[in-house]
Amino acid sequence: QVHLEESGGGLVQAGGSLTLSCAVSGRPASSYSMAWFRQAPGKEREFVARISMTGAMTYYADSVEGRFTISRDNAKNTMYLQMNSLNPEDTAVYYCAATPYYNRIYYRGDSYDDWGQGTQVTVSS
After folding, report:
1. Which of the four pLDDT bands, split at 50, 70 and 90, describes residue 104?
2. pLDDT of the residue at 21
């Protein structure tokens, strides 16, 4: 089991940018495929982006493709989500997630074994 802690959320105006971080502790981050999910009020949790153990492969939800960038620094045991051109529809609690398995369906929440507590992102219009 690994501990995940998100940071970097906050309030930003539409069109602005934020960078979220997910700090990994307990085990080396390099042993985990990782992802970002988000959940808006009254909505189901949805997949945002996923990155492979080495960072060589990334996947994005259509709604964030071209605006968000997922990355990781395994030497720092940290994953990132750079979010640009934010709009009010991006308002949600953002969660990082991890799994030691590489062959699960990456966009399903139940593919991940460990989750952070979440960080709130609010985009004002």
Report:
1. confident
2. 98
- Per the DSSP assignment, residues forming a β-bridge with 62 are none
Q: How far is CA 60 from CA 32, 71, 76, 98, 120, in A?
A: 18, 12, 23, 16, 20
DSSP 31-60: G-EEEEEEE-TTS--EEEEEE-SSS--EEE
Task: Report how far apart, in Å, the C-alpha atoms of 111 and of each of 15, 23, 85, 87 are.
Answer: 32, 20, 29, 28
Question: Which residue is listed with tokens 């989750």?
Answer: 115
- DSSP character at residue 61: -
Choose among 97, 109, 86: nearest CA to 10: 86
* Alpha carbons 70 and 51: distance in angstroms, whole number: 7
Q: Which amino acid is at 37?
A: F
Separation of alpha carbons 88 and 38, rounded Å = 13
Whole-angstrom distance, CA of residue 32 vs CA of residue 44? 24
Q: In this predicted model, what pLDDT tens digit does every residue of 19-61 receive, in sequence order?
A: 999 999 999 999 999 999 999 999 999 999 999 999 999 999 9
